[in-house]
Amino acid sequence: MAGDVDQGADREEQPDPGGRGLGGPPSAAKRGSWITRALAALAVFAVVPVLAFGIKYYQDGQQLKRHEESMKILGAEGLFLFSSLDTDHDSYLSPEEFRPIAEKLTGITSPGEFEEEESHDPNGETLALEATMQPLQMDSMTKSKDGFLGVTHSSLSGLRAWRAPATPSSTFSAGQFRVFLPPKNKHEVGDTWWVIPSELNIFTGYLPNNRYNPPPPKGKEVFLHSLLSMFHPRPFIKSRFAPQGTVACLRATSDFYYDIVFRVHAEFQLNEVPDFPFWFTPGQFTGNIIISKDASHVRHFHLYVPNDRPLNVDMEWLYGGSESSNMEVDIGFLPQLELLSSGPSTPPFVTDEEGRVVESRGPEPIHFVFEDIHWTAEVGQQEAQRHLEVTFYPFKKVSYLPLPEAFERAGAEHKLVHSIVLWGALDDQSCSGRTLRETVLESPPVLALLNHSFISSWSLVRELEHMQTDEQNLVLGQKAQMHLEKYNFPVEMIVALPNGTIVHHINANSFLDETAMKPEEEDAAFSFSAGFEDPSTSTYMAFLKEALQRAEEFMQ
Q: How many CA atoms lie within 13 A of 11 on its CB side?
């Protein structure tokens, strides 16, 4: 009878208030069905990772087999060359990967597949740029002191050959310079923004050294690549080491114009096959542009490598046929590398008083008269540069003064001098203290202590050597000598009294050894229960606090 049918079979199961998830106890048949489905699901989940592991194991084995076969066929140096072209590391060369060799053998450069952000107005204004350079002073390199003993001639072949800009002059559309314009949310003077963002940090490491040709630039990189290609045909817009990229700062604004300062971290590959790679890394490119807000007119453009320090270029080159081969490192002085506009941008045609179209760059060039720009808001050049520095390097939230000024300020404020001595600049890409600046020097506790109790400075070894022999300032020379007496390669951190007396110092290598964690210390060092503080920060804090204690009796 209908009334004898179990209506529970059609009943929608209700949530169990006791948390079992079913309205009542399941029947034996349902239990069996549920268990069968569960076991089947578990079997699937168990097989998937095993299968994935097997595939990965097989792929790794095949990759190792291809590597061994390639080594037998090509040898170490041949395999190095092959690997530098095999950008996707699949042990096969695609036509795109082989293109650099084809261009080298045929002498024909295939058109690049560069991405332009937008088309440019053919009737718009154009700007002429001129490139000038003075080659690196070879005697400024450390290796020059022993006559480049042990340095092969081929290693420096690209450096010795680079004597002039690849393209002494070129013309660009004014609209191309819009890459420097500020985004919509950056309209106050002093605001900074990333034109080309950095993709590296202390955790991501650095990009490979065994490369000859830069990757195709994209987006805003395209125009920067075009500019730097005036110097050398192989610019890398994204440098191997952090911080990469380009940062701009709005220095001044008027009703129609912006004055923008910018800083670029890029490098060049000077060698070609068959020589091993030689990386030429200026400490920085800096410059400024005065441009209309709609990018239709450029009043002024300047880009250059600063030469106010005795050393401003880092150089690195490989010896051997693999990424792990020995690398030589040196630093030198580049007197000049700059791009400068020959005048404001101008239109290709103008209309005379009678309405006739006249070519502005004809046999008799037209002389243009431009209105003066009246800035309605601005910050100083040094302040704008500092905004750029802090954006690139958070450790520059602490002011680092030249050593003479640091000692003078320390005496006036009754503080200690926190001094860092190194071969390359601490705040650019020629630095020999990358790890230091990217970790401990930018940590909040260290920044706070340095701001409160110290006057900070950094100096090149070469600068201290010059100060030491300065007969016009014997007192400063003595302070420089005391610094040099404590210095050991590559970086020395020093704390001194205002009179130059060293109260504490530690070498960067020793510091890194002290902060290297033992396995049994890792859990304690990174325990969140006690508050996070990495070993390098706590060690540097201890170094600074000990210096303060040692100085107490002298600072009364």
A: 10
